[in-house]
Amino acid sequence: MGGESDIFDVLIVGAGPAGATAAYRLASQERSVALVDAAKFPRQVPCAGWLSSRTNTLLSDLGVKVPAKMIQPFKDVTFHSADLSKTANPSFKDAPGLLVDRNEFDHALVKEAKKAGATLFEGHSVSELQIEETQVTANFADHQPVTGSLMILATGRSTRLFDRVGLAGGPPSSGYFAAEIRIDGLPKKKSPTVDVILGLDRAGAFGVVVGIDDRLVINVQCPGDKGDAIPSLISLCRHLKEADMVPGDYTHDAARAAVLVTPAAAALSMDTHVAKRTLVVGDAGGFVSAASGEGIYPSMWSASIAADVVQEALDAPSPQDVLMSFNTRWRTEMAEYLQPPNTDLQYLLPLIFSNQPMADRMGAAFFSGENI
Ligand SMILES: Cc1cc2nc3c(=O)[nH]c(=O)nc-3n(C[C@H](O)[C@H](O)[C@H](O)COP(=O)(O)OP(=O)(O)OC[C@H]3O[C@@H](n4cnc5c(N)ncnc54)[C@H](O)[C@@H]3O)c2cc1C
Which CATH architecture group holds 7-49+101-172+264-338? Predict the structure, then answer.
């Protein structure tokens, strides 16, 4: 690729795990890629930082090299009842997941995409998209336009550019909300721990507490009412303190936490992820697991499928026809992983705490997207 005024094969808007994965994949296949993000990396992301262990397989299939010390496998998982009076420890043959510092992890993926040949435009927010018959152009308030033959939209939870893309059926919406606090500078943990607090309310809200190195992340994910997230986080922090599971009283931090929309499983109800010369991936396409709120691995997974589709479309006489295949390709591979548990958890909860095979099945559902 020559100067910035040339047309790139692919314009990718958003350089989170989804955008960076697609950029890496396409750049390593000798495509010219413009990877654009409003933020400068490393950027701060609210996130508990746990990933399915399948991420390792995806990373090695793609050939992405994230430093091993950045990814810590965990096996120490405890399910708790909402009042923390009951516990269950699911057993796993291998570590069910990995813990990362999201800020470092996302930065590492962006560096890999750059190393593979993608051109990064960071610190510039796309204000407008111009979608024409043969190309897509991103406009900025503070930078000259960047044009690609095809586009991958990976803008996360932001829905600002959706109107410009003209996606039939509109952006993902799920009615799930998340709130989170992160505490750093605690005494260093010997090994990482993940505690999942189930059944915080009748609608199925749950909490996740991740302890790794000197940091602790406490979050809640609530289906339903936005107003439930902060009271739910405060109440969880209070219970955690009373049960001596955390070293301090974090209710004040919880009261000040931001409430974020999370598009859990919204991909499943979207009419299409294909617009003119465009595929939508990651959170922007609602690729988040309904059972656990896990979105990093699904976002990378959806992006790697999209990259393969785009790679094919770039050589096709009618690229749009090939782009359309994304709808069936991701559904075939990912739909089961994203869908909510096929059983009402209210009835299942007592069994999880009294029956080891049920605890194991809940573990497989939560961390590996399997059906209960
Ligand atoms: C509180 C909370 C905790 C979570 N914890 C976990 C967890 O432990 N594990 C897990 O797997 N998932 C977790 N998730 C979900 C996970 O963070 C997301 O699913 C994941 O970030 C999706 O990646 P993405 O690349 O699609 O989007 P993002 O990571 O959001 O990246 C989108 C990028 O697009 C850029 N962008 C947006 N608009 C524009 C624009 N107009 N111009 C240029 N750039 C733009 C943004 O700057 C951003 O960098 C959590 C979510 C929340 C809310």
Answer: 3-Layer(bba) Sandwich (3.50)
